[in-house]
Amino acid sequence: MQHKKTASNRPPYGILSVLMIGAFIAFLNNTLLNIALPSIMKDLNIETSTVQWLSTGFMLVNGILIPTSAFLIQKFSVRRLFILAMTLFSLGTILAGFASEFPVLLAGRMIQASGSAIMMPLLMNVMLVSFPIEKRGTAMGFFGLIMMGAPAIGPTLSGWIIEHYDWRMLFHFITPIALVVLVAGIVLLRDVKERSDAKLDFMSVVLSSFGFGGLLYGFSSAGSKGWDSPHVTIALTIGVIALVSFILRQLRMERPMLNFKIYQYPMFALSSAISIVVTVAMFSGMLLLPIYVQNIRGISPLDAGLMLLPGAILMAVMSPINGKLFDKIGGRPLAITGLFITVVTSYFFSQLKMDTTYTHLIILYSLRMFGMSMVMMPVSTNGLNQLPTRYYPHGTAMNNTLQQVSGAIGTALLVTIMSTHAKTRGTELAQEAAQNMTSQPTAEAAAVLKQQIMMQATLDGINYAFLVSTFIAGVAFILSFFIKRATQAEDIISGRSRNEQIIKPQVSNQ
């Protein structure tokens, strides 16, 4: 027997469980791969500029496909989309696990990305239509618990696997789990959906692909190629022109692929602005801290993963707690408190030294993650809560797209800031050392001095990038004071609530 689900009835926990496990596997795969990049470079004999395409290519595919997810969610059922997403993800994982050449590995990663790009907006949309607004914070909190579990165990698990096995074992480890989830989705999901007459505008897809794809490629390449590289300037120019054309086209269309009219709702617009700024600042910790602990301090990948573990666990544990607090007190107090903690801890990270203790790093990173846990999900949920039901697919697609773009911008910006400042400081330190020399050093002493200068310059570059991220987080902190508790905008069509017209996911209770 099947039961129609509405926001006021019992949510489809069966569907949500399967979707969350699928999304968890996709998240875990990403966190597993980061620490494995040096091993992949060595085994496949490739450079840093080449191996970074495993991350850049993943983001490019996400940037191209996520904007189409609003159309896909409206056109197809949850069951069909989930099976498609998990099938693509599983095929990509299998291909990557048996790759002996980099192009094959990259192809596997991009096929994986095509699956995960559908998964996250699909899950978010199902959660939005399954829970009433007064219970949505708690639901999103438990969603955050699942999603933060992957970053909690990913780096540590990856470090252990890399130290004991070949990097391909990371994909072999994921494959059977992904296949089990796929089979579970085929067996358990039984949803019914009205046939939609939504049509995909080909020109919108082209403009979206060149727009978001160009920006992602340009910003991602800037970190390694430099901002004055023709690859970067051409990609960014094409991206900006295509994106502006895409937005103008969507505003003129009666049924747009991605509806930018959602920005007429002030709390959603504010939540997008805060999320973009926080994501840029967040990448300082994710990107700069591993460089510091491994390249400057010489800490092993396993110990580096263990260092990040308490903070990730704390963020995961706090997610459902913050969800319940959001339902009670709203997003503003949480965002203000969380961003204040983020600003303070970011500043302390800008004061790193050569002998900063391991314990100090763990405590500081854990506090930073504690602050972040109070920001991302509450702010995003508050913004989505203001949207009419018919705009949920567009809101989730927009949020996920902006997260990819701002992540690429944050990476490129902070890498460029760090590299530029480190280069400047290296020149200054070399000149100071030359002035203080009383005699010509031996070749061995000169090599040691050069190494010390390089290490100090890198440390200064990392500290400066953290200082910039402190001011970026400060912008989000100021914006958080303008947050108001959102109430859903009216969504009335032909005298009936849109909630009554939308067919919610259905699942067999047998």
From TrEMBL:
Gene3D superfamilies in the cross-refs: MFS general substrate transporter like domains, Multidrug resistance protein D
* GO MF: transmembrane transporter activity
Please name the Pfam families in this protein's record: MFS_1
Q: Report TM segments.
A: 12-33, 53-73, 80-99, 111-130, 142-162, 168-188, 200-219, 231-248, 268-292, 304-321, 333-350, 362-384, 405-422, 464-483
The Major facilitator superfamily (MFS) profile domain sits at 15-488
Q: Where in the cell is it found?
A: Cell membrane
Gene assigned in the entry? yhcA
Q: How does it sit in the membrane?
A: Multi-pass membrane protein
Q: What is this protein called?
A: Uncharacterized MFS-type transporter YhcA
Q: Which GO terms describe its cellular component?
A: plasma membrane
**Which organism encodes this protein?**
Exiguobacterium oxidotolerans
| Stored CDD domains | MFS_LmrB_MDR_like (cd17503)
